[in-house]
Design goal:
Layout (H helix, E strand, L loop, with lengths): L1 H14 L1 H6 L2 H6 L5 E5 L5 E11 L2 E2 L5 H10 L1 E5 L7 H10 L6 E5 H9 L7 H7 L1 H9 L1 H7 L9 E4 L6 E6 H6 L8 H13 L11 E3 L21 E4 L2 E4 L5 H14 L13 H7 L3 E7 H5 L1 H4 L9 E4 L18 E8 L6 H10 L3 H9 L6 E4 L2 E4 L1 H4 L4 H9 L12 H5 L4 H12 L16 H26 L5 H14 L2 H17 L2
Parallel strand pairs: 2-4, 2-5, 8-11
Antiparallel strand pairs: 1-2, 2-3, 5-13, 6-13, 7-11, 7-12, 9-10, 14-15
């Protein structure tokens, strides 16, 4: 394994020549002798200072936070971050690989970790998990879907992942105050929804005497109007249909969906600036012109409070998805169980066992509580056997960001298990009610958030070559149709033919090959 890792590093040095040339002598000094010799700790236990690469959007993450200090006391393992300061995350990662000496732990995208793991840079963790990680092993035994997802194409586990908790993420919202004013019922079908949006357009529900209402808005310029596609059983990306992965924009049902969206857009039911508008919720709810949307529960429901003075009586609430044209009631948005981040141990490390035991700590009851809530007595207290955030924490405008910055809790690239109860404490009642309805009524579909698939090196190379041209063509053509620049009926066959020419069927097949491997893992 050590020889294989050395060969990999040699190849990485060649491929990263430019990046390596940009690195300074400081980079080499930071990545040489990264692991300090174990010594006797203050509490009489053996300690180890392990080097780690951890870089996020804000840059190099400090390892002296209250949470990580407390973990060091409990585990005997402290961390020393060797990520190069400055630049972007990918550049820092490549500089680390090009340095020639890897740290003990690498925290990064799990797909990349699996890739360098298959080349020998990371230690396979399967046996270590069985022998040294009882908490994480118990989790995997109880969550087969996670075990399958984190198993690389070669059958090994190279990274311990970040795992989210909860299922509901997004839902449909509507102006209940407008429904009440116009004496309308909450729409239960796509046809009823269409009639309500027309009423919002025509009957002046904001009462300003102007026809300025925007019946449907969407803040995501990429998804945009395509968030309406499920109303006609269509979708804008990959999803599972009859046990196979299909590409939504290549399905015949997409034609029906995009035709109806184009009609709604022409009729003024959809925000005319849906592909370009910035901060649609802030702008359109703020000027009392927005009627409905599909978006995240927590952030969208918060506007009822934040805009209460500017828009008196604003009552923007979740409602069950309108039944589609085929009569199905379902929600395509689902909280992804795996974020795509995690951490692994390099094959060069002299402290693989210590690292695995450290990883496992975060899956224990105490470790999980620290990861989610921080330090008892400082960020939370125990009430009836459950952690409850202090008022100081709950008063923050961005609770999650505050936990990361002040305590080092909720670090998103650690291999740990989130606890949804941490989020419940700072989510308002409107959102919680919507989340409960969607979850209790089993509205959320499992078919529209694919498991994280692991591709071989050859497959990933082909995906990289195909994805850009296919996605770009779809986006350009679909936007042209929505905005009326071309007729869907006359152009759809040629559109499908061009997708085929661009390799969409190979694109789909690669996904299905990886999905078949995922399903076959025992």
């Amino acid at each position: 394994m050590k020889k294989k890792a050395s060969l990999l590093l040699a190849s990485l040095l060649v491929s990263a020549t430019v990046l390596g040339a940009c690195s300074s002598s400081n980079t080499a000094s930071n990545t040489t002798n990264n692991t300090q010799t174990s010594s006797e700790g203050t509490e009489g236990k053996e300690t180890a200072n392990l080097s780690i690469f951890y870089f996020d959007d804000a840059g190099v993450v400090k390892m002296d936070s209250p949470v990580l200090k407390k973990a060091a006391e409990l585990t005997g393992v402290s961390l020393n971050n060797v990520a190069s300061a400055g630049g972007e995350e990918k550049q820092a990662y490549n500089l680390m690989l090009a340095s020639g000496t890897l740290p003990d732990i690498v925290s990064y995208y799990t797909a990349d970790l699996n890739s360098i793991g298959a080349e020998g840079a990371l230690e396979p963790l399967n046996d270590y998990i069985d022998k040294l990680a009882p908490n994480f092993k118990k989790f995997l035994d109880e969550h087969e879907e996670v075990r399958k997802t984190i198993t690389a194409a070669d059958g090994n586990i190279y990274a311990i992942p970040f795992v989210a908790d909860g299922s509901a993420s997004t839902g449909w919202f509507i102006r209940q105050d407008w429904l009440d004013k116009l004496n309308l019922e909450t729409p239960k079908t796509v046809d009823e929804y269409y009639e309500v949006l027309k009423a919002f357009r025509d009957q002046d529900p904001n009462g300003n005497g102007k026809k300025d209402e925007v019946p449907f808005m969407q803040r995501d310029n990429v998804v945009g109007a395509y968030s309406l596609l499920p109303l006609w059983d269509a979708y804008h990306s990959f999803y599972i249909k009859d046990g196979k992965i299909v590409y939504g924009p290549y399905e015949d049902q997409f034609k029906t969906g995009i035709e109806n969206i184009a009609r709604w857009y022409k009729e003024g039911l959809i925000d005319k600036e849906i592909f370009t508008r910035s901060k649609a919720r802030e702008v359109l709810l703020g000027n009392n012109t927005a009627g409905s949307t599909h978006d995240w529960f927590a952030s969208t429901s918060n506007f009822n409070q934040s805009l209460s003075k500017d828009v008196p009586g604003l009552d923007f609430i979740p409602f069950a998805p309108p039944a589609s044209s085929s009569g199905k009631v379902y929600e395509v948005g689902k909280r992804a169980q795996l974020s795509g981040f995690g951490w692994g141990v390099t094959a060069q490390s002299k402290h693989i066992e210590e690292a695995v035991k450290y990883f496992d700590f975060w899956w224990s009851e105490e470790g999980r509580r620290m990861f989610n809530f921080g330090i008892e007595g400082e960020s939370y207290t125990m009430v009836d056997g459950k952690p409850k955030f202090t008022e100081e924490v709950l008063s923050q405008p961005a609770v999650n960001g505050y936990l990361v910055e002040a305590f080092g809790a909720q670090l998103p690239k650690m291999g740990a298990w989130q606890d949804f109860s941490y989020e419940e404490q700072w989510t308002n009642e409107i959102a919680l009610k919507g989340i409960k309805e969607y979850q209790d009524k089993n509205i959320i579909s499992n078919d529209y958030v694919l498991p994280t698939l692991n591709f071989t090196k050859e497959e990933q190379k082909r995906l990289d070559a195909l994805k850009g041209q296919i996605d770009t063509y779809f986006a350009e053509k679909a936007q042209t149709w929505v905005m009326g620049g071309e007729n869907v009926e006359t152009g759809f066959d040629a559109y499908k033919a061009q997708l085929k020419n661009l390799g969409v069927e190979e694109y789909i097949q690669i996904y299905n090959d990886a999905y078949a491997r995922y399903l076959s893992i025992q």
